[in-house]
Specification:
3 domains, Rossmann fold, alpha+beta, 16 strands
Length: about 700
């Protein structure tokens, strides 16, 4: 892959120094990670054979073809100085080929096809960069430049058509004064009809384009969010109210609504004002000069208060989401409020947020009212100036009556445009704030995916910890949660991880799972340093049964398989039968396709939900199984057979099981005791009993 990166960097004149050697990518995410080193991205393409041939005939962008199993790679780069395409397969250069010959080299619709392009070609408004809100808005327009360009072009056409009507009316008025029907009058009426029809067609086209733009914003934003959320760094979001953060997603609907006003009405209104001033200059330059002077003054006054208005609008939005987050919290813990007789906190906290919201809204309203007052005053001043000065010019015979009528029609259009700008002022602030709010979902850093894939194996993985330490910061204080952990776990061994609450067991498992990246020391999985392991490959080979809270709102089948294509009905039934839940799931109203509520409450028993989580982990066919206190609180008759299954010596996987139950630990090959983040014992259960440390549990 290093060769491909250098070739692509040369093609786009990008820097290619200090490349990390990550090998051939095993997934789309890994491919993006490697291309990101040189500022490129892969854009997935769905070509028909005709489209693919047309691309090779006309377009000049590199194309990467990947086999569905991600084992064969073909790269086609346009020859810079000659006709045709240069082709590489793996590390081997195959030669230069014409567009017609490329299909024979493996570039066909049966492959995964990716256009390789610079990231800057499609700038997203959403990122962790600290940029101004207006720049984010311009990035959004830039990302959808073609659609936005057409919408603005149609706005220009509609604005021009609007202002042609007064000119035609003036000419018609001149003909009507003769009191005779002449050919020119018919021509003007026909021209007016054509202009009005064009105006209608253009406006309809704008609405169609805007609908496509709104759909694209929705699709791209949603897909980008669902891509980023599972990849958030745990350290970046561990203290966040994640449901409250995801609530910002609903700003997309505000954005769709307000952006339609910005793209449909605001450009047409601004063009009407601009072209209206230009048209007035032909009737009487004094008209244009006066209106231009007043307009410049108004724009300056609005500019002075723009930043303050934006901040106040953002504060209103902050308080709105604070209230939504509080109400979600009330709903989540409604039993706590119910059984305590509706405590004072319920109302005092609500009233506190209400007061903050109303105060911030009052500030924003006052500022917006001031801006609208300026615009209304501008409207009145322009109207009075036009009427007064126009009447004086007509009386002084410097302006004909027809020109006066036409200029007043232009004035009417100007006033309507100004009114529309006034009504859309809030939409401008709403759009900018919506982009800022949605961007909060994109601010947490995401983990790097690409790396060395773990080898496929029918046996368990070896695990080695070497002086692993982890520090956490709480306010001004830094404390150590893992202290120089060192141990070795051989393939297929079952480890019982034990220790009192708060000893660091969960932290150790999260670190092994790649969720804590800022640890010191080294962790090796099957001999590969965890820092270099491809994260998707790591999690593909680990089965985790950490908590019941990971039951999602979906069918039982989806909760078991998570959409993994390799899981057959027979395999799922076999695992469920071994765990003793097949019969219960079969008797649900819709069997395995019964929809579960969030966390599965009210449909399945607590024991069945725990077995469901374990079944999901086993169905992954893991090389390493992690089980954390999943059956705590249950009697031995219920959980004993489950631990017999999980800790079966014949099971090929390596397992790490968290438990404080001596009967569970007795079934494990090795015992690891954590005490205040330190590994105080590592060995067999027999040796563990001899140390008399069992009393610590």
């Amino acid at each position: 892959m290093q060769l491909y990166l250098k070739l692509l960097a040369d093609f786009y004149d990008q820097k290619s120094e200090d490349l990390r050697l990550l090998g051939w990518p095993s997934s789309f995410d890994a491919l993006q990670e490697e291309l990101g080193q040189i500022g490129l991205v892969a854009a997935s393409q769905f070509f028909s054979r005709q489209d693919l041939q047309a691309h090779f005939m006309r377009r000049r962008l590199p194309l990467l073809a990947v086999s569905p199993d991600w084992r064969r790679f073909l790269l086609a780069i346009p020859a810079k100085e000659e006709e045709g395409w240069q082709v590489w397969e793996g590390e081997r250069y195959k030669g230069r080929f014409s567009p017609a010959e490329l299909a024979q080299q493996g570039f066909d619709i049966g492959q995964l096809l990716y256009l390789i392009i610079p990231r800057g070609w499609f700038p997203s408004p959403f990122s962790s960069e600290p940029i101004s809100p207006l720049k984010r808005l311009f990035r959004l327009f830039s990302a959808e430049g073609r659609l936005v360009g057409y919408i603005y072009l149609y706005a220009l056409t509609a604005g021009g058509a609007n202002l042609l009507v007064p000119v035609i009316i003036q000419a018609i008025y001149t003909y009507i004064q003769t009191l005779q029907w002449v050919t020119g009058l018919s021509t003007l009426l026909l021209l007016a009809a054509v202009i009005l029809i064009v105006w209608v067609v253009v406006r309809i086209a704008q609405y169609i384009l805007l609908e496509h733009l709104q759909r694209r914003i929705f699709l791209h934003s949603t897909l980008e969010i669902v891509y980023r959320v599972p990849r958030w760094l745990l350290s970046a979001v561990i203290r966040e109210n994640l449901p409250g953060l995801i609530n910002r997603y609903f700003e997309i609907f505000t954005l769709e609504k307000d952006i339609s006003k910005l793209l449909l009405n605001l450009p047409a209104d601004l063009l009407t004002v601009l072209l209206g001033i230009i048209l007035l200059s032909f009737y009487a330059p004094f008209f244009a000069f006066t209106v231009l002077l007043v307009t410049a003054l108004v724009v300056f006054l609005l500019y002075l208060s723009f930043e303050e208005a934006y901040k106040n609008k953002k504060e209103v939005s902050n308080r709105k989401y604070e209230m939504a987050s509080w109400l979600e919290e009330v709903a989540r813990a409604f039993l706590a409020f119910k059984v305590t007789g509706f405590p004072a906190l319920l109302y005092s906290r609500t009233q506190e947020i209400e007061e903050k919201y109303l105060t911030s809204r009052e500030k924003y309203f006052r500022l917006l009212l001031r801006q609208k007052t300026i615009l209304f005053s501008y409207q009145v001043v322009v109207a009075l100036l036009m009427l007064g000065v126009g009447a004086a010019l007509v009386i002084g015979r410097q302006l004909s009556l027809g020109q006066f009528v036409a200029s007043e029609l232009v004035l009417f259009l100007l006033i309507n445009a100004i009114q529309d700008i006034i009504y859309n002022l809030d939409a401008l602030y709403g759009t900018i704030v919506s982009i800022e709010k949605m961007n909060q979902i994109f601010e947490p850093k995401i983990e790097k995916i690409a790396g060395i894939p773990l080898p496929s194996s029918s046996q368990g993985y070896s695990v080695s910890f070497r002086e692993v330490s982890l520090y956490r910061r709480q306010g001004e204080r830094t404390f150590q949660v893992l202290k120089g952990i060192t141990f070795d776990l051989q393939p297929g061994e079952k480890l019982g991880l034990t220790g009192p609450m708060g000893s660091g067991k969960t932290t150790l498992l999260y670190t092994l799972y790649g969720l804590h990246e800022d640890f010191e020391g080294d962790i090796y999985i099957e001999g590969v340093n965890l820092r270099q392991v491809d994260r998707l490959s790591l999690r593909k080979h680990i089965g985790d049964a950490l908590e019941v809270g990971q039951i999602i709102e979906a069918s039982v089948w989806d909760n078991l398989t998570l959409g993994l294509p390799h899981l057959s009905w027979e395999k799922v039934m076999e695992v469920c039968d071994r765990l003793g839940i097949k019969e219960e799931l079969d008797h649900l109203p819709e069997g395995f396709f019964t929809r579960l509520p969030p966390q599965g409450r009210g449909v399945l028993s607590g024991l069945t939900l725990r077995k469901l989580v374990l079944a999901r982990a086993l169905l992954m066919r893991p090389n390493l199984l992690i089980l954390e206190d999943l059956f705590v609180g249950m009697d031995w008759e219920q959980k004993g057979p489950l631990y017999d299954l999980v800790l079966d010596p014949e099971a090929p996987y390596t397992a790490i099981v968290v438990s404080q139950d001596p009967r569970v630990l007795q079934k494990c090959d090795k015992i690891a005791l954590l005490w205040k983040g330190e590994l105080t014992f590592y060995g067999t259960y027999a040796d563990f009993v001899k140390t008399e440390k069992l009393f610590l549990l």
